[in-house]
Amino acid sequence: MKFMARENTAFLFPGQGSQYPGIGRDLHGEYPDVRETYDEASEALGYDMARLCFEDGDGNIHLTRYTQPVLLTHSIACHRLFCRLTGGRVVPAVAAGHSLGEYSALVCAGVLEFSQALKLVKARGELMGEYGEGEMEALMLDLESAMSLADRHCCGIAACNLPDQTVVGGRAADLDALVEDMSERFPRKRSARLKTEGAFHSFYMVEAALRFREVLKQTAFPPGTGKVLSNYSGGLHDQDAESIRAKLFFQLFNPVLWYRNLQTLRESDITVVVEFGGGIGKGETPAEKRPNLEAMVKKAYRGAGLTYFPVINRETLERAVDGFQD
Predict the structure, then answer these.
(1) Model pTM?
(2) So which residues are the catalytic ones?
(3) How far is Cα of residue 15 from the mean position of the Cα atoms in its chain?
């Protein structure tokens, strides 16, 4: 089945956890416009983005201060390349991103310039790494059950990804106690510790958010050309710059309402989704990676029609471009 630009299409962008050494290597080696995007990032950030992505022997790509610019760069490189190869015909009705991915969505919609977004996420990552603390645990539990555990162990809700998938944040000892308590109260439920430098989107990020607010004040947010979903509200961003700044400020220490974002997409009659950037899975090469958000989106759309195109490496790019041809 072939698709063209229409009002039923959304563009999605992943967040932290979808970075890996070698990210973008295949596209960077083949397409000049991808190399230009990486060069643009290097100029804005003051370090070599390609070297960080492809020759990172020290694991810096997993440090928050580097992870966030890396993922933004790869996501926008994939997005730009897809748009060029489809002749700019695929214009989404809405863009959305999970956590950090919200910044990629704002670039996609023309609300942020790429260079501005790079500087924002560079500062955001540095502040989150320096002033945040704690860790994160993904629980295969509904929000109410997760909240009861979090409240008992001084942890906070960090993300509501699906009705049965909630992420909590807290100090390592508190999370350990929470997991032990969960195993007794919900013996059939699983959890997983996430590899992050802090309890993102929880009260442990308040200091980082207060400092980041000053950076947001110095950034322009023009109306843009497209609609973007807010992780903080679950609905659409207003076009007012002060409202966007406030929601990005609150996003740092409040839960990511991703499932509500997905509900908004479904209620808006979105039936075609394109996911740009990142990659997860045990394989080491771009070709061995799978998209970060696909499983969550398909679960949220269960029982409804959905066509999903990832654009995360050369193979998926080619399939997606072919899917949007006449």
Answers:
(1) 0.95
(2) 99, 201
(3) 2
